[in-house]
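Aim 2 progress. For Translation elongation factor, the working sequence is reproduced below.
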Amino acid sequence: MGTVVMGKIESGSTREGESLLVMPNKALVKVLAIFCDEDKVKRAGPGENVRIRLSGIEEEDILSGFVLSSVARPISAVTEFVAQLQILELLENAIFTAGYKAVLHIHSVVEECEIVELLQQIDPKTKKPMKKKLLFVKNGAVVVCRVQVSNLICIEKFTDFPQLGRFTLRTEGKTVAVGKVTDLSSSSS
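Predicted structure tokens for this construct:
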């Protein structure tokens, strides 16, 4: 029978019989069938919403946010990354500093995260890094920081692949910041 997964093809294409990796758990799978809407197709490409029947993995081994990836060039899976954030509106009495916790929303991943280090603030007028030592930032600030999650997530640098490199940070149901991944940590696989 196989396990059926749903998603959108962001890049490349897939075809029946192809071997792929499910990331971040690195499970090798084979594509048994592809469905676009209700139609069975032999191949699907970028932008298409698909259901794909796979062999080699069980349903309980796949979570929302997992990515089907090429065996030759698998997507990065990290627990820490560097990002540029635009602080929109913090909750009242909240201070955006190292230790700030929020919920990260990136493609279909929803994961708790923590800001582990503020690296630099960007001057909104010149778009250049400011020299001052950074302890915290306020609403409207643009900041480069290191973000950490507890589980491996599949992401890409925004410059390499915008669809998998932009995200929001939310707290108590409110979007407090939008960001883009600028660098993947060395702990990536």
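The radius of gyration is 19 Å. This observation will guide construct design in the next reporting period.
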